[in-house]
């Protein structure tokens, strides 16, 4: 299933599946590590907006959504 648009900070893929009587959308989200300006508030706001947009879209597609992935959001700073 194609996502509605291309994102600049996140990569995402959606796969539809039917398990029993349930239509399920599996959503995998990835943010590449070591991107420049990863600690700037503007960048983090963009990540949050894109993540919100992707999850809202997924919830509108199916009643059952499984979200997985790796956002590379280390809480330890150099």
What is the structure about, briefly put?
The chain is of the alpha+beta class and 78 residues long. It has one helix at 41-61; strands at residues 11-19, 22-30, 64-70.
Written account of the structure:
The protein is an alpha+beta fold and 78 residues long. The chain is 27% helix and 32% strand. It is built from one helix and three strands. It has a three-stranded mixed beta sheet, with helices on one face. A hairpin with a 2-residue loop joins β1 and β2 (22-30). It starts with 10 loop residues before the first strand and ends in an 8-residue tail after the last strand.
| Structural class by helix and strand composition | alpha+beta
Counting H and I runs of at least 4 residues, what is the number of helices?
1
Sheet of most strands: 3 strands, mixed
Distance between the termini: 38 Å
- Spatial extent as radius of gyration: 14 Å
* Helix fraction bin: 25-40%
Order of helical and strand elements: EEHE
Features:
32% strand, alpha+beta
Secondary-structure topology with pairs:
Elements: E1 11-19, E2 22-30, H1 41-61, E3 64-70
């Amino acid at each position: 299933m194609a996502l509605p648009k291309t994102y600049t900070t996140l990569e995402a893929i959606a796969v539809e599946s039917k398990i029993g009587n349930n239509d399920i959308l599996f959503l995998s989200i990835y943010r590449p590590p070591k991107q420049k300006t990863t600690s700037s508030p503007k960048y983090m706001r963009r990540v949050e907006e894109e993540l919100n947009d992707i999850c809202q879209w997924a919830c509108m597609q199916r009643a059952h959504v499984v979200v997985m992935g790796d956002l590379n959001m280390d809480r330890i700073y150099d």
